[in-house]
Design a protein that fits this description.
172 residues; alpha+beta; 2 domains; 5-stranded antiparallel β-sheet; 2 helices; 14 strands; 23% helix
């Protein structure tokens, strides 16, 4: 005798065996579906630019959360909205480095840290606010610049999490 859904079902051994086989096949199907969903998630992330951090040599010391651009030498440096040559933000630092060493930046994705002072001038982010490249080297600001180049870099998800999504620059 087997119990299903709170009721009792009298089933002969052959029927019980078929039910077990059917349940087993259903679990295998669920496992295959879960693997397919995970593969699709990875593909979507890669297409959306969330493939992960990019390693680079830093020409200047950079801390987590600071915006960077690629220099003519092919290294990264802290970005600044005041000059077209330094305003081409490619990402936000996700693993800081001192000058001449390898660090990481993300062109898209989420960066979380407890203290954002180095990157924003404030210990915490303002949830929901957009963050733009500042006219101060290596800084993000919630106020779009009125001179130089305006580049939206991210949106704060919380006081500690920043969703990086670099927008196109608009030269003023």
């Amino acid at each position: 005798m087997s119990v299903f859904g709170g009721g009792r079902v009298n089933a002969d051994p052959k029927t019980q065996s078929q039910l077990r086989a059917s349940l087993w096949a259903g679990q295998e199907g669920i496992d295959e579906l879960a693997a397919d969903v995970a593969a699709l998630d990875a593909e979507i992330d890669a297409l959306a630019g969330f493939a992960g951090p990019i390693e680079a040599i830093f020409d200047s010391t950079a801390a987590v959360g600071q915006p960077v651009y690629v220099s003519s030498a092919g290294h990264v440096q802290l970005a600044d909205a005041d000059s077209p040559s330094t305003a081409g933000v490619v990402g936000i630092v996700s693993a800081g480095a001192s000058a001449g060493n390898t660090g990481e930046y993300v062109p898209a994705g989420v960066i979380t840290q407890a203290d954002w002072t180095t990157a924003t001038g404030s210990a915490s982010l303002t949830a929901g606010m957009l963050y733009f490249l500042s006219g101060t080297t290596g800084q993000l600001t919630t106020t779009a610049p009125t001179v130089g180049t305006v580049i939206r870099c991210a949106r704060a998800l919380s006081a500690t999490a920043l969703l990086v999504a670099i927008g196109p620059g608009v030269k003023l």
